[in-house]
């Protein structure tokens, strides 16, 4: 492959290297990139000289900022034919990563959001650094957390996952480990040496040799109001509890929620609660595919991307504009079978 290709395969010793290579776009995933990653994983799965796979991001800013949401917005405005095909392949890749037969080591250095979580947090060894900022920010652009995000966040301690899913808050290394999104902390400056070690010894031995103590996180200290305020199945009630709690951080969270898509908030809470009872990641990805396809047909995703990414005025015009205007039928459509059929991952698993 050429240096300008969006995914660069490589080798060091018996470790295969997979570099996401769109640094100017913060390595945002395209449909082509998903295909290239899948092709590399297929080749390495059957290569006896490969004993581990390492995924990392090119540039200094991070692993991956997510899917190419500009392209999703353009597709939504044009009628929404391309995005379901992209998600179908992306979610299948997420499931494959979770069940990959060789150690899959993810360097979650810098920004890791949305689709970046999907390509890393389902791996067998997930490494964060002091630079890591991990988030599922979908409610801010009119979407529901996907790429297996509802499966991961629904299993975080207490209501931490609910808080992160609804607000889209980015967390650092310690909190990522606490929430089950990562396993080990390594200094960013040590990643090149860790890469070489992964080619020489077993992945767990290599990572343990470079593991560092994480800086203190902030979520543990906020568990009291987070667990209290988010422990219900109604977004309006959550906002009311946060507003009335008395902790300034709780009030700030309420203010953040009121800037998010009201429809996406209610749909996210419903999908997240349902994910708690799902037995597998594949079942959660099936549910997320239904939710993503439903969101594509609504006005909030184009409005959110315009406000956050295109015009950057941070003033989305949500429709409906308030939580009280979102009806049960609006949320129910996020659970309906898409016009082109579902993903079918859980059924394929047998």
Automatic annotation (TrEMBL):
Domain annotation Enoyl-CoA hydratase/isomerase: ranges: 16-335
Catalytic activity line of the entry: 3-hydroxy-2-methylpropanoyl-CoA + H2O = 3-hydroxy-2-methylpropanoate + CoA + H(+)
Keyword Hydrolase on entry: yes
EC code(s) of this entry: 3.1.2.4
UniProt enzyme class: hydrolase
Superkingdom of the source species: Bacteria
Keywords assigned: Hydrolase
Pfam families: ECH_2 (PF16113)
CDD domains for the chain: crotonase-like (cd06558)
Matching NCBIfam families: PRK05617.1
Protein name per the record: 3-hydroxyisobutyryl-CoA hydrolase
